[in-house]
């Protein structure tokens, strides 16, 4: 379970999060939508433990989290395969990690880019590489910030299929932020529309 209790956050003099409480349990699939600049990414970063709130508590009983931020956390001096290997090194060992990396690179259409570095790849390819690393680690909590960004319609659908499969088959709890909602089908998803900051939520 992930629980955010009465979270608040401000930057300089601007209050972004007013009073936010949120619970995410195993098997939950929740998406927050709304205009840019109202605090969705900040809330996701607090949920990930990357940003500390000014007040409130973050409690998580999940054992393994994967997080995709707007700027994909790829190492620019490593190839796609080396990035996968590095990201998965804490979870999977040796030959199994190598095979798993190749499997997900192929599944994300990146087999021909396995030995390319991020700067040699398009924005969409970098996004798919970051998603491959998230999926390959089989997290029990997955946090996604605009997972469909930079992707064409085909890959938006493919990424959505993987998100749904991970949620339904593995029971992965998923909290995501997205402007795109047309992909949301064939899944029991809660959509929370957000309109203005400071955000006040209790879900």
TrEMBL record:
One Pfam family recorded for the sequence: ABC_tran
UniProt key word Ubl conjugation: no
Sorted UniProt keywords: ATP-binding, Nucleotide-binding, Transport
Positions of the ABC transporter domain: 2-203
Molecular function GO terms recorded: ATP binding; ATP hydrolysis activity
Annotated InterPro entries: AAA+_ATPase, ABC_transporter-like_ATP-bd, ABC_transporter-like_CS, ABC_transporter_ATP-bind, P-loop_NTPase
Keyword Transport recorded: yes
PANTHER family reported for this sequence: ALIPHATIC SULFONATES IMPORT ATP-BINDING PROTEIN SSUB, TAURINE IMPORT ATP-BINDING PROTEIN-RELATED
Protein name: ATP-binding cassette domain-containing protein
Upper classification of the organism: Bacteria, Pseudomonadati, Thermodesulfobacteriota, Desulfobacteria, Desulfobacterales
């Amino acid at each position: 379970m992930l629980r955010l209790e009465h979270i608040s956050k401000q930057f300089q003099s601007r209050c972004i999060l007013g009073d936010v409480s949120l619970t995410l349990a195993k098997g939950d699939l929740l998406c927050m939508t709304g205009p840019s600049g109202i605090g969705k990414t900040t809330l996701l970063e607090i949920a990930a433990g990357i940003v500390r709130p000014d007040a409130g508590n973050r409690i998580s009983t999940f054992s393994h989290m994967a997080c995709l931020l707007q700027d994909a956390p790829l190492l620019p001096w490593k190839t796609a395969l080396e990035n996968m290997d590095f990201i998965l090194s804490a979870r999977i060992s040796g030959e199994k990690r190598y095979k798993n990396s190749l499997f997900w690179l192929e599944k994300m259409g990146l087999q021909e880019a396995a030995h390319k570095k991020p700067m040699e790849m398009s924005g969409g390819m970098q996004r798919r590489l970051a998603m491959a690393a998230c999926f390959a680690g089989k997290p029990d909590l997955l946090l996604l910030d605009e997972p469909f960004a930079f992707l064409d319609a085909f890959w938006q659908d493919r990424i959505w299929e993987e998100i749904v499969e991970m949620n339904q088959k593995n029971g992965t709890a998923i909290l995501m932020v997205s402007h795109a909602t047309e992909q949301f089908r064939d899944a029991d998803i809660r959509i929370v529309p957000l309109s203005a900051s400071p955000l006040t939520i209790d879900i």
